[in-house]
Write a structure and sequence with these properties.
This protein is of the alpha+beta class. Strands 1-2-3-4 form a 4-stranded mixed sheet. A hairpin with a 4-residue loop joins strand 2 and strand 3.
Length: 127
């Protein structure tokens, strides 16, 4: 991930913000999406991607198509799957450990694990 120009907050800042939201939600979990890349052939789209402000506020800057989960027990980021084609065209990318360290989440998983993860959670409301 390209972070040039970002003034990064320490991970404790994001953890504190997520904990505040978690306390407000009680037993409810919330899924948040970072957003998708923009089409550059539209004149008003001068940047290929910037995560949604609410996502940056809770998780910090990230790549496109990332999903953040704040549950009563943990925070998890689900990043796009890293298959052979992605590695070929985009390179290795930021390590899961680096993403976890920077954002202060409990875990980082690939997107294909999202449905299985949610199915294994205790029944509660998900927003």
């Amino acid at each position: 991930m390209h972070l040039k120009g970002y003034a990064l907050n320490p991970p404790e800042t994001f953890q504190s913000r997520r904990n505040h939201l978690r306390n407000q939600l009680g037993d409810v979990s919330v899924l948040l999406c970072s957003g998708s890349e923009r089409f550059l052939n539209i004149e008003s789209n001068v940047l290929p991607f910037r995560a949604s402000s609410y996502f940056i506020f809770l998780f910090g800057p990230c790549d496109a198509d990332v999903v953040g989960l704040i549950s009563p027990t943990e925070s998890v980021l689900f990043v796009p799957d890293r298959d052979a084609t992605t590695l070929l065209w985009e390179g290795e990318g930021e390590s899961f450990e680096s993403i976890q360290e920077r954002s202060g989440v409990d875990r980082v998983l690939e997107m294909h694990q999202l449905a299985t993860y949610l199915a294994a959670q205790p029944a509660s409301e998900i927003l």
